[in-house]
Amino acid sequence: MNLEILSNDLFMMALTLIMNIIVFSSNFQLSPLDNLNLYFHAILQMGDIAKDLFSGTVGGAAQLICGHPFDTIKVKLQSQPAPLPGQPPKYAGAMDAVKQTIAAEGPRGLYKGMGAPLATVAAFNALLFTVRGQMEALLRSQPGAPLTVNQQIICGAGAGVAVSFLACPTELIKCRLQAQSALAGSGQVGVAVKYGGPVDVAKRVLRSEGGLRGLFKGLVPTMAREVPGNAAMFGVYELVKQYMAGGQDTSQLGRGAVLLAGGLSGACFWFSVYPTDVVKSVIQVDDYKNPKFSGSIDAFKKILKSEGVKGLYKGFTPAMARSVPANAACFLAYEVTRSSLG
């Protein structure tokens, strides 16, 4: 890929976005619909990178709206402490966690911690689909040529590396907010801290947990989840589409096929890496001053020793229940938006 062309593309994308922000914020003579038409027209003039960025943003928003309540329950189940001998766990299962959350915090409790991913979902999915798109361009034998399933696996793995650096601090903030009520009720030292919101979590971590390094706590398991997980997701997504299309040309598939492929690919993501996600979550909510785990391997061993294999699959049901509709919505929103942009 020509780096000069890539740099120019990025510059024009940034310039166009800035100009459209100015239009939205200062052009009061136009109606909101006219402003929206101007913005959409500007997107149409952008290159492939910008179109992937914009389409990824739309897909990410759809994914978050559909999936966050499931994610909240998943993290609550993952982060609840192991019960004392003879004592029941705080949550008996996914439905019990839902009932307790609604009883204690109302329906809005299911959306706790949404501020952090809402603020970064655009960047996360834009980066994911943009890196994947650029890797597709590098692997194509000629412009527009379809890729094989193996090539899509490579693209997914590469995208997974890139998004790990954004996912780690974002999910640390989200997990702290989602898990704090369960941890506060456990009586453990130092975990009853009440965070006021995403910004408050970031401030506390930066101030008292080693600065910027504290926000990247759990980077290793995050990358160990994102790289193989996205390789599996994009590989299965392409495999299902090609199977239903009867070949590599999937451009004529309907929305139902995209929904099915997206849902199955999301399920494969979590099925392939779920224990890694459990390790990531317990490390990110672990107390900084009195840590239970010295690292990813130590966390894996201790969970396995104290809870068995079952402990590595805490929250698996809500995670799988979330993955199908959330990823189906994400891929459909991405494909429809990307197709409309040309």
From TrEMBL:
Domain of life (superkingdom): Eukaryota
Chief location category: mitochondrion
Transmembrane segments: 12-30, 114-131
Each Solcar repeat, start to end: 50-138, 147-243, 253-340
Cellular component GO terms, alphabetical: mitochondrial membrane
UniProt GO molecular function: L-ornithine transmembrane transporter activity
Localization, UniProt: Mitochondrion membrane
Xref: Pfam families: Mito_carr
InterPro entries xrefs: MCP_dom_sf, MCP_transmembrane, Mitochondrial_Carrier
Topology term for the membrane: Multi-pass membrane protein
Keywords: Membrane, Mitochondrion, Repeat, Transmembrane, Transmembrane helix, Transport
Keyword Secreted assigned: no
Biological process terms in GO annotation: mitochondrial L-ornithine transmembrane transport
UniProt xrefs under PANTHER family: MITOCHONDRIAL BASIC AMINO ACIDS TRANSPORTER-RELATED (PTHR45624), MITOCHONDRIAL ORNITHINE TRANSPORTER 1 (PTHR45624:SF12)
Family statement: Belongs to the mitochondrial carrier (TC 2.A.29) family.
Protein name listed in UniProt: Mitochondrial carnitine/acylcarnitine carrier-like protein
Species this chain originates from: Citrus x changshan-huyou
Taxonomy of the source species: Eukaryota, Viridiplantae, Streptophyta, Embryophyta, Tracheophyta
